[in-house]
Specification:
mainly alpha
């Protein structure tokens, strides 16, 4: 069995990773700030579903094959980069249209639901967006391949240990997501103003597209 000390060390590592501002933080904050609480929780559940999949695949040795195969890793990296650039670019384009006066605010509100892969304040749409974003990030697989085996003791079931450690990661990430959603809810009224909303969307779109470009460049 994994010792409590090993679990604590792993929790510290993934906890610091979770607290580091990044793509997941931007997606959750932006979605929750617009008052889409169901969709925001869908994003959280989708991201953590992806984390669980990476944990299981790593425990089964599948992600080791991915990182060992240059072609497979590069293919996943480019698909993930293209998806992120498309997502960020689409959001930036929508803010450009709103700022140039193309369509009334109600149309903009309807268009808001089209961001990502879902529509409106729907749990399933948010889940799909979070899941695809996480699963198309090969660096998650590389991180798990590098870290997870170090905490699996000899003779223990790698699948059981991997799911336990992934569960720790998911628990910490959900706790952090609760804090992010609560923070966004406090600022919701201010952030839903047209000018503030455009700034929020531009910032989020830029962050998402920048992550895609960095992923494409292999940084």
């Amino acid at each position: 069995m994994i010792t409590p000390a090993a679990i604590g060390t792993f929790a510290l590592m993934v906890g610091l990773l979770t607290l580091t501002p990044g793509l997941d933080t931007a997606l959750i904050l932006r979605t929750a700030a617009l008052g889409h609480r169901r969709r925001a929780w869908g994003v959280v559940l989708g991201i953590q579903s992806g984390t669980l999949v990476w944990g299981v695949l790593t425990s089964l040795g599948v992600t080791a094959l991915l990182t060992a195969s240059h072609l497979a890793y590069e293919a996943l990296r480019w698909v993930g980069a293209a998806y992120l650039v498309w997502m960020g670019g689409r959001l930036l384009w929508a803010t450009r249209r709103r700022s140039s006066g193309e369509g009334p605010p109600t149309a903009g509100a309807r268009g808001e639901g089209k961001f990502g892969t879902g529509a409106g304040d729907r749990l399933l749409g948010g889940w799909r967006q979070g899941f695809v974003t996480n699963l198309l990030n090969p660096k998650m697989g590389a991180f798990y391949v590098a870290v997870l085996p170090q905490f699996v003791p000899a003779g223990a079931s790698s699948l059981t240990a991997g799911m336990l450690l992934a569960g720790v990661h998911i628990l910490l990430a959900v706790i952090w997501a609760c804090a992010l959603i609560a923070f966004a809810h406090v600022l919701r009224d201010r952030l839903r103003r047209p000018s503030a909303r455009r700034c929020l969307d531009r910032l989020t779109g830029t962050v998402i597209a920048a992550f895609g470009i960095r992923l494409a460049l292999g940084q």
